[in-house]
Design goal:
This protein has 197 residues and is α/β, with parallel strands linked by helices. The protein has one domain: 3-Layer(aba) Sandwich (Rossmann fold), CATH 3.40.50.300. The chain is built from 8 helices and 5 strands, in the order E-H-E-H-H-E-H-H-E-H-H-E-H. The protein has a 5-stranded parallel sheet, sandwiched between helices. Helix 6 crosses helix 7. The longest helix has 25 residues. Bound molecules: adenosine-5'-diphosphate and thymidine-5'-diphosphate (TYD). InterPro entries: P-loop_NTPase (IPR027417), Thymidylate_kin-like_dom (IPR039430), Thymidylate_kinase (IPR018094). Keywords: ATP-binding, Kinase, Nucleotide biosynthesis, Nucleotide-binding, Transferase.
């Protein structure tokens, strides 16, 4: 089964994802953007380039996702593994829909979801680490263009739309709590998810 971790920059996804390695040592841990392919390298160039075109950036992220799916996610799922991904398709629906808000693309979230629908694999469950944009921007250090509070407020509104559309897929965790409490809540969510499946 495929479980993804989503949330704003600085919500604590990577902290949780690393801690989960000890809890589920047999799971396949992976992430987007990928950190072991040239597609991921191209994505990181776009993240670091303040002038990168937002539509071109969407397609780079989506190319990285396609490679991630065929190379890592689908083979692991075919082997019956538990796959835990730090970010996945919802990051595109939330972030790139915000980046394309004032572009020529009408209804950017629906457009991005449509591109994915043709080939992607929806997560079985998604744990959403919920944090306000100011805390997110402060924790992440505002080091790239995606980490500014005003932009993150749009991204957060997009995540809320996604949760509203599929409430059964998402588990919301209050990520403003201390790290050990966030981890307890995520572990409890995982226990429920694995019991259900
Ligand atoms: N629950 C928390 N409370 C306070 N600080 C946190 C918490 N979780 C993570 N942090 C800190 O916030 C920063 C970003 O955390 P990280 O796990 O990298 O977030 P993300 O992967 O979502 O961007 C790190 O310095 C981390 O130590
Ligand atoms: C996967 C993904 C990430 N991003 C953004 C979120 C982050 O600002 C940046 C890098 O992701 P990531 O390395 O997960 O950052 P963080 O650990 O700070 O959350 O890329 C998108 O805009 N779209 C995507 O599809």
């Amino acid at each position: 089964m495929l479980v993804t971790l989503e949330g704003l920059d600085g919500s604590g996804k990577t902290t949780v994802w690393e801690a989960l390695h000890d809890v589920y040592p047999d799971a396949v841990f992976t992430r987007e953007p990928t950190d072991d392919s040239w597609y991921g390298e191209a994505v990181n160039r776009a993240i670091g380039d303040d002038d990168a075109d937002p539509l071109a950036t969407l397609f780079l992220f989506t190319a990285d996702h396609a490679d991630h799916l065929s190379r890592v996610v689908r083979p692991a799922l075919a082997d019956g593994e538990l796959v835990i991904s730090d970010r996945y398709s919802d990051s595109r629906y939330a972030y790139q829909a915000a980046s394309l808000r004032d572009s020529d693309v009408k209804r950017p979230m629906e457009y991005i979801m449509g591109i994915h629908a043709a080939f992607s694999r929806t997560p079985d469950k998604t744990i959403y680490l919920d944090v306000d944009p100011e805390t997110a921007a402060a924790r992440s250090g505002k080091t790239n263009k995606f980490e500014q509070a005003a932009y993150l407020a749009d991204v957060r509104a997009n995540y809320e739309r996604l949760i509203e559309a599929e409430p059964e897929r998402f588990v919301r965790v209050d990520a403003t709590q201390p790290p050990e409490d966030v981890l307890d809540a995520v572990e409890a969510a995982f226990a429920d998810i694995l019991e259900e499946n």
